[in-house]
Structure formats: structure tokens, C-alpha cells
Design brief:
single chain; 360 residues; Rossmann fold; 2 domains; six-stranded parallel β-sheet
């Protein structure tokens, strides 16, 4: 526990706890260390998670979670009434008005992250929450939530938890394969199609079969078809199937996405391409935890089973949505990233991590 931890918040022996995460898939996965910490502090608790429908599947089968409550569009008021004071503790993992309000309404006691921006709404939230932790710039999101554990007075368990693994029967790679996920949600996180194809060729030269994976979206599938042009098999898998596939892979390569966070959490040697976003905050969290924070910028960084590759231009990390500052903008730092640099990180990962069969 952090030296600045406070007295543990008083709850019944079998409390009902709600954790609120109303952001994207990767954000929800990054809350699992907080949920594991809550489970460790109150083993007999009933722990529910309030999440958006498109993100909830990333915590399916999580042994620390009893129920997932899905926030349907346009039903906020109805859901707030249903959840009103049903929980002994409600915890918001965001500073926003909606998640904080849900924590205050749903919990007899409540906690959350708060902003120090000086706005009246932030001051009100700070005053209303029973326990709070201020958002700190340029620290990792997992560390941010571990500080919320400190505010609750409970021990930190900074361990990512994957969805329950389910073997993908349609994918039958050999013992030596690489998993590649080339499609980020937004254009400003995209590498080049030529870069991905050069990477695949380099992986084959290293004796690895290449398995490309995709989400369910039609636009993503069209993008990946254009990237791969039939040069590698492309599989559309569930989160639980991806978990099983990644656990046995020799290496994973992908951009700054939720899949990269999942790959890191499985223990797979994970190579992640970072553009304008700040790895100090959003770098994948290694399976064994992280004792040294990510640096803001560097050609190749390594922490545990994760390697981050950047084209370290002087402007990194700008944290803008591409060079034109909108989600459909390209990022020069990624456009000019060489495949040879990515393959150098792959070589480091392969050299450091023996084949899974040898690990067991």
C-alpha cells in the first residue's frame, strides 16, 4: 500500500460495490487492477461494473466481477433510479460529470477521481465524494487508479485481468506464430500498409507464421483487407478467443489499441507502435506490473513483456489527434516509422522471451 494511504473506508463484511467505467474498451480493461484490489480488500463482496455495451465484453468471465450492468443509450435516468443507493460503495474511475453522478447516486458511500482544474463543477464533486483522488498529469492510468486504492485505504493489486480464454477452433497456427492487429480505431494511430506488409515478411523470415486479427466492424475489415491484400490470413475473433490466441503466441505487434493492452495482460511478448499519444499514461501495462514508468519518448523502450516503438521526433508526445488535430488526420511520426525499427523490437522480444512450450 502507498505510504500516503488513509484509514480503510468502513464497509460491511459482505458489501455491494459498483465500479463505474463509461469509456472505451481499453479504459475498461485498465480498471481491472482496481477491481482486483477491491476484491482483495473485500473477498465476500458482490462487485458489479457499470460499463458501455460495446466495451463490456472485455471483462466477460473476469473472476473478480459478479455482474456487468450495461449503460444503454438514452436510459441514464431510468438506470440511475434503478441503482439508487443499492450499493455500499460506488467508485467512479473517471472525473466526468456522468460517472461521478452515478457514483454519488448509486452508493451509500462513494469515491472517485477528481480534477484540480478549479472549475465549480470539479469543486462540487470534490466536496460530495466521500473519498477522492486527484488526477495527476503524465502518470499511467493504472497508477492513477492505484492512487484511488490509496484513498480508499486498501492494498494495491496492480494486476491486469483478461477475459476468460476460449480457444478459437477456426485458427490452428503451429507452435511458432505471431499475432498482428493492424487496425486502430482512428486514423491518427495508423501505421502504413507498406509497413505492415514488410513486418509480416520479416516475421516469416524469422520462422513465424503470421495470424492477423480483426474486430467485427465492417469498416475495420475493409481497411485490413486493403492492408493485407490476401498476403496473410485474417480472423475475426471474440475477446475471449483473442485471449487464448495471444497466450500461446511468440510475439504480438499492434498499434496503440485495446488489443495491445490485452496482449500485454496475457503475458505475450507485446510490441506496440505509439504515435502522438503519451506512453507515460497509456502505454500497455506489463503482465508482471511495472516498477519503472514509460518515458515520454524513445526509439524502443522495454518494460517486462512489453516493447514500445516510437519515431521519436522532437514533437512527441504531442497528444494531438494527428498532425492536423482531428481523428481522420495522419501522424507523421507513424507515417515515417521504419519497418526495420519495428522488427528490431520484435527481435528483442523474441530473444528475451523463450517459446511458450519452453517456459512451462
Amino acid at each position: 500500500m502507498n505510504a500516503h494511504a488513509t484509514t480503510p473506508i468502513a464497509l460491511p463484511e459482505r458489501p455491494r460495490i459498483l465500479v463505474i467505467s463509461l469509456r472505451r474498451i481499453g479504459d475498461l480493461l485498465l480498471t481491472t487492477p482496481l477491481i482486483r484490489s477491491l476484491r482483495g480488500a473485500w473477498p465476500k463482496a458482490t462487485i458489479d461494473v457499470l460499463a458501455l455495451p460495446g466495451a463490456a465484453e472485455i471483462v466477460d468471465g473476469n473472476p473478480d466481477i459478479d455482474r456487468i450492468v450495461r449503460m444503454q443509450g438514452g436510459q441514464s435516468l431510468k438506470l440511475a433510479l434503478q441503482l439508487f443507493k443499492r450499493y455500499d460503495l460506488a467508485v467512479s474511475t473517471q472525473t466526468g460529470d456522468r460517472p461521478t453522478l452515478f457514483a454519488i447516486l448509486a452508493g451509500r458511500r462513494h469515491a472517485g477521481l477528481v480534477s484540480d482544474d478549479g472549475k465549480p463543477s470539479s469543486r462540487i464533486k470534490r466536496a460530495m465524494l466521500h473519498r477522492k483522488s486527484p488526477m495527476t498529469p503524465q502518470i499511467h492510468q493504472v497508477e492513477q487508479l492505484m492512487r484511488l486504492c490509496d484513498a480508499l485505504g486498501i492494498a494495491r493489486v496492480p494486476e491486469m485481468v483478461c477475459p476468460a480464454a476460449s480457444e478459437p477452433q477456426e485458427v490452428l497456427p503451429g507452435d511458432h506464430y505471431a499475432v498482428v492487429h493492424a487496425a486502430p480505431m482512428f486514423r491518427y494511430k495508423q501505421w502504413t500498409a507498406e509497413g505492415w506488409r514488410a513486418l509480416a515478411a520479416g516475421l516469416r523470415q524469422r520462422g513465424l507464421d503470421v495470424v492477423a486479427i480483426s474486430g467485427p466492424g465492417a469498416e475495420e475489415l475493409r481497411y485490413l483487407d486493403a492492408v493485407w491484400q490476401g498476403t496473410v490470413p485474417l480472423y475475426q475473433l471474440s475477446w475471449s478467443q483473442n485471449t487464448a490466441l495471444l497466450k500461446r503466441a511468440r510475439v504480438y505487434v499492434g498499434p496503440d489499441t485495446s488489443v495491445s493492452h490485452l496482449a500485454a495482460a496475457t503475458g505475450c511478448p507485446t510490441v506496440t507502435l505509439f504515435g502522438p499519444m503519451d506512453p507515460r499514461v497509456w502505454g500497455p501495462w506489463p503482465a508482471g506490473g511495472m516498477t519503472e514508468p514509460w518515458a515520454a519518448s524513445g526509439a524502443i523502450q522495454n518494460r517486462g513483456n512489453v516493447w514500445i516503438v516510437q519515431n521519436p521526433l522532437p514533437c512527441l508526445p504531442c497528444t494531438f489527434e494527428g498532425c492536423e488535430r482531428h481523428i481522420d488526420s495522419a501522424s507523421v511520426c507513424l507515417e515515417e516509422l521504419a519497418a526495420e525499427q519495428v522488427l528490431a523490437a520484435v527481435d528483442q522480444a523474441l530473444a528475451k522471451t523463450p517459446p511458450r512450450a519452453a517456459v512451462a
